[in-house]
Specification:
The protein is an alpha/beta fold. It has a domain at about 5-195 and about 225-235: NADP-dependent oxidoreductase domain (TIM Barrel). The chain has 10 helices and 10 strands. Helix 1 (about 25-40) packs across helix 9 (about 235-245), helix 2 runs parallel beside helix 3 (about 85-100) and helix 3 (about 85-100) packs across helix 4. About 45% of the residues are buried. The structure holds NADP nicotinamide-adenine-dinucleotide phosphate (NAP). NADP nicotinamide-adenine-dinucleotide phosphate (NAP) binds near residues 142 and 216. It holds the Pfam family Aldo_ket_red. Belongs to the aldo/keto reductase family.
């Protein structure tokens, strides 16, 4: 069984701090990747409607023979479905694809402030329905900036349990993280190793060599010590194993500070800016 620490969310649910991300895993390969991750000990899977592999996630969990209740499963609303009726249908489809009667966490994937007349508030209120009827144990958002979070606080009655945002050593995203910390919103760090781009950094490779760890382990450990939730993606068995072995070592203050010093601010982003991102999959 897994020895991954859990973090308590603002609704009392607990989420494993380390999980397995499945973005860009082809639908046909997803069940096998998820099964491998579960066999290694992961108990938290992060998928999304946009990844088109929810079916494989559900299948992988069943193939691993693990009780549904032991795995924390997150999915996310696709960008084309922000209107309440569309969101309701999309959420039904998510549960159908997973073949589960609930998800542990359901997120608005992107705020899309330039679309839908800038209305992500009615979308959020629709997610509140899913929480109320128990089909989403927790609800949250992804890629929300401080202004978007503040608007939800001003206009609705619930605080998102998490905000899943881009965070890695080149883009520490501390303003949004700090807002979350001050308002009881847990931060989930997506692309935690910047899709591999930070792994050749001389600061990271030097620390990895000194500690006898891989560059990915060092960067993922930095996230863990910052208190964020991470779910690195890999389809490579040895990497899936290595990325799970983060709890038998610690970064000292100097190494931790050296990695924090790699932050490039806004220019360190590798993904789209949530203030302008308006992609709707066809
Ligand atoms: N909410 C959002 O908008 C959003 C956006 C992006 C991602 N996410 C979530 O965050 C998860 C993780 O982010 P991500 O997939 O973008 O990137 P990531 O986890 O930072 O990096 C994945 C890449 O790094 C490689 N890799 C993984 N472990 C490695 C290791 N130990 N050594 C060397 N290379 C390694 C993988 O290659 P191989 O697979 O070939 O091994 C893959 O190319 C996603 O899967 C998804 O669940 C959410």
């Amino acid at each position: 069984m897994s020895n991954t620490p859990t973090i308590e969310l603002n609704d009392g649910a607990r989420i494993p701090q380390l999980g397995f991300g499945v973005y860009q895993i082809p639908p046909d390969d997803t069940a096998a990747a998820v099964k491998s991750a579960l066999e290694i000990g992961y108990r938290h899977i992060d998928t999304a409607e946009m990844y088109q592999n929810e079916k494989g996630v559900g299948q992988g969990i069943r193939d691993a023979g693990i009780d549904r209740a032991e795995v924390f499963v997150t999915s996310k609303l696709n960008n084309g479905f922000h209107k309440p009726d569309d969101a309701r249908r999309a959420f039904d489809d998510t549960l159908r694809a997973l073949e589960f009667d609930y998800v542990d966490l359901f997120l608005i994937h992107w705020p899309l402030p330039t679309l839908y007349d800038g209305d992500y508030v009615s979308t959020w209120k629709t997610l509140e329905e899913f929480k109320k009827d128990g089909r989403a144990r927790s609800i949250g958002v992804s890629n929300f900036q401080v202004a978007h979070l503040q608007r939800l606080a001003d206009e609705t009655g619930t605080v998102p349990a998490v905000n899943q945002i881009e965070v890695h050593p080149y883009f520490a995203n501390d303003e949004v993280r700090t807002y979350g910390r001050e308002h009881g919103i847990a931060t989930e760090a997506w692309s935690p190793i910047a899709q591999g781009q930070v792994l050749d950094d001389p600061v990271v490779t030097r620390i990895a060599e000194t500690l006898g760890k891989t560059p990915a382990q060092v960067v993922l450990r930095w996230h863990i010590q910052r208190g964020d939730i991470v779910f690195p993606k890999s389809v490579t068995l040895q990497r899936i194993k290595d990325n799970f072995a983060l709890f038998d070592f610690e970064l000292g203050d100097k190494d931790f500070a050296a990695i924090s010093g790699l932050d490039k601010g806004e220019s360190g982003r590798i993904g789209p800016n949530p203030d302008t991102f308006d992609f709707i999959p066809s």
